[in-house]
Amino acid sequence: MDDGGIVGSPELLQKVWDILKAEGPCRGLQLNPTKCEWSWLNPECTLPCPLPDVALVPTGEIQMLGVPLGADDFVEKFVENKLLANSIKVMSKLAAFDDTQSAMYLLRLSCGIVRANHFMRTTPVPQWKQVASKFDTHIRDTVSQILGTTFPGDSYAQACISTKIEGLGIRRVVDHANGAFAASWHESQRTAMEAWNVPPLCNAEYVPQMQASASTDAESLETIIARASPRDAQRLRRNDVIHANAWISSLPSSVSLIARSTNFYIFLFYLFYAQYQFITKTRNKRYATFRADTNPHTGRFKSGRVFTTPTHITLAGSV
Predict the structure, then answer these.
(1) Percent composition of the chain: helix, strand, coil (DSSP 3-state, to 5)
(2) Entry pTM
(3) What is the pLDDT of residues 29-41, one digit of tens each?
(4) What's the sign of the alpha-carbon dihedral 73, 75, 81, 87?
(5) Which backbone phi and psi does 130 adopt, to 5 degrees?
(6) Domain locations in the chain?
(7) What's the rounded Cα separation, in Å, for the pair 177 and 174?
C-alpha cells in the first residue's frame, strides 16, 4: 500500500487511524504521520487536525495522487507548475533537434502530451483552461520551429487532427479535454460500482476517449472542408482514406538524415498542398532549405530534381 484516501466523519477516521496504527506493523504497514494529511471538507471549518503530527491541508489545496481537487486558483497554479515548466524545456530541445521526422514523432507521442492527457482525464478543463491554451500555443510554436512554417490559413487546424485523416496528430488540449474527462468519469463510476450525479461536462452516455477524440477530429475536418474551395475540399476528402497518411506516424528509418528529411518534407507539401518554405538543420548544423510549388491544374507535384550540397538542399523547379 502506498497512497490512499479515506472520507468519513472525524470519529470514523479516528477509528481507522487507530486500527492502522495497531494492526499495520504486523502486516508490514508502518504509518508515517509526517507524510499524512488531514482536510476538512467544509472550507469554513477552522478546527485543528485531531490526529497528532498529521498536517492540516486547507480545503482549497487538497490533492490526491497528483490530481488537484481544491479551489480553481490552486488547481490552475498546480497544473501550470506540473505541466508547463518541464514541457517547455523539452519542446525547446526538440525545436533545435537535427532530425525533423524524429522531432515530430517525439513531440506527438511524448514531451508534455502524456502529462497533459493525465490532467485532461482527471481535472475539469474550465479550472485550467488558460494553462491549456498556453500549452497549445507552445506546441504550435514548437511545431512551427521544427517544420519552419507558420501554418497559414486552416493548415494548422488540419495539422491538429488525427494522422488517420490527414493531420499531424498534434491535438489541441482545449478541443479534446472535455471528451477525455467525460470518459474517465464514466470509467471511474463503473470501477466504483456506484451511481453518481452526472456533472455538466459529461454526457449521460459513456463514450470512450478514443471515440470522442475521433469525433472531434471528424468535426474539425468537416469544418475545414466547408470553408475550403471545391478543389481543396476534394483534395481533403481524397486523403481521408485508411493508411493514406501512415507515413506520418511511422518510426523514423535508418536511412540517412538528409535523404529521409527530404522525403518527409515532400510528403508534408503533398499533405497540406501548400507553397511553403520549410527550413531545417542538417547534422552539421548547416541549414537545409526546401521549396515546393504545386501544379495549379492537377493538384499534384511535378517531377523535379533534388540537388544536394554540403550547405543546402533545394528542390529545384516544381517537385
Answers:
(1) 50, 10, 40
(2) 0.79
(3) 888 999 899 999 9
(4) negative
(5) -65, -40
(6) 10-57, 67-239, 253-316
(7) 6
